[in-house]
Amino acid sequence: MRGVRLLGVVAFVWIGLALSAQAALATYGRFQVVKINQGGDPSDTFAFHPTFTWTGDLASTASDFSLKGGESSQAYDVACNIERLGHVECSTKYSNVTLQVAEQPTPGYSLTDITCRSIQSDDNHNDFSAGAPGPGSPVKPAGEVTTDLASGTVGLKVHYNEWVVCYFTNAAAAVLPTSPPRQPVASAAAPAAAPQIAVSPSRVRPGTAKLIGPSACSTADVVVARVTGRSIARVTFYVDNRKVKTLRKPNRGSTWILSLRVRGLNHGVHRVKARVEFARSSATKPKTLPVSFSRCGSGAVRPQFTG
Fold first, then answer.
1. Which end of the chain is more exposed for a tag (fewer CB within 10 A), N or C?
2. Ordered strands of the 256-261 beta sheet
3. Please, what are the domains in the chain?
């Protein structure tokens, strides 16, 4: 009988330890980082330094890591450090909690945005049943996030059973072309100066432009000329060498359009020119694109635009 009682005590202690261990690991949140690379080389990597510290259960093991654009870090289980309304779950388990991640500077890039989104699971089993947040998930309240773009740092307040994903967005710096340095003038007695080598600019995408007109003589009162391309800053349209319109931004989606009423034009050939100026960062000189069309007389064959 004494042995049975002893066995019961041992079993009771074992169950208590198991429940205690389970409780020790049952009060935490989850955190991830997603990297977005805008305009840069997809193979470039970005280094991160996590700082997860607290006093209490659930020991932290977070090492430095690197991500390419489109990649995400592992999901870290971290101590929760802010209570949900009507709950007391975190302060009884943890204190002195620091949840912070810093992105290290990357040459050729600037950190332009840090946005943290979260999903709160409301069950009591810490299994994050609501799943991971995505780009369309709610943005974490400003009072629970501290961001510093200059240092690349984000600090967080995380609820119990809350999954937080922070999106770090970097933009590739545009590199403008530079003039080669002037050659020193050598005197008669001085040796000739070594030739200077101009360093080619990197990651400069030249501007492009194309002018499109109707393919045949239109029976409507209006014909349309369209300019499409990349890095366009301004388009000026001319009809028969007379300026008729200047656009400083696309006026239909990403297209620069001139709608020309034909009724007031003489029958015969007319010429349209589009002078295209590009953004300075593209290092592209202005271009003039011509196209011509005919206004048909009664019974005439429909003319075609010619580039």
1. N
2. 208-212, 222-230, 256-261
3. 26-172 (2.60.40), 208-295 (2.60.40.1930)
